[in-house]
Amino acid sequence: MNITTVQWNIGGGKILQDGQDPLLMASYNQDGMDHILGFLRSVSPDIVTLQEVHADDHLNQAELIAKKLQLEYCISDFNADSHIEEGQRLGHAIISRYPITNQFFELYVNLNKQVIGEDGRLWKMHDKGYTRCTINVDGTPIEVTTTHLIPMRRFGVDYTSDEGRYVLDDVQKKLASPGDRQLIQADFNLDLALLEPALPNLITNGLSEVRQDAVTTPNGRRYDHVLYKGLDLIKSSVDNTVLTDHYPITTTLSL
User: Domain 2-254 maps to which CATH number in 2.170.120.12, 3.60.10.10, 3.40.980.10, 3.60.110.10?
Assistant: First the structure.
């Protein structure tokens, strides 16, 4: 049996304003939920992992996407105020065609650094964490995890430095799991074809990686990654025609 998954940082549901510079974060300021939904409908995924999802007292973008796609199961966790749009909370989500159980959320360590961003505003390191659950695919349980790591590059932190290793050691410890079947899809904020140099303990714990040679952002970086265990990779591809500030990865796996 095959399942289709999508990994996507949707950037608060914003898309590129016509005529604006795609390399600037401020250029992604137009409501793009219809655009995002159109792509997802074209793929008809079984499992979707999302980062930079917005929610307020009136609307949770992940729940809206699940409803519009007629996918019954959805979980989300929100861990910081959004830097994209005032009044929104920022988090990540897992949406599934199959039942979800055992939801778990945990934060990572935070270096609490600050820097003046490209727009002249003060950027602060948000709290980051991971969401994990079990998805039962026709009697086969799969442990599914999504996460969004600190953008260390933006704050002048090299992942090989003492500060970088402090963060990534915490990430490896918390993401490690003995589960027989695992799927981790995430925005790791690490521009690497393979994550093993940055997360060696995690990768050598029985996980395989989809080699990410294609860039997953308009600025040419490979931040988004797919890891799996107890599943067979059929194919994986990046769609660089979408207008969000990250591109979605569509992956087909066999149970």
Answer: 3.60.10.10
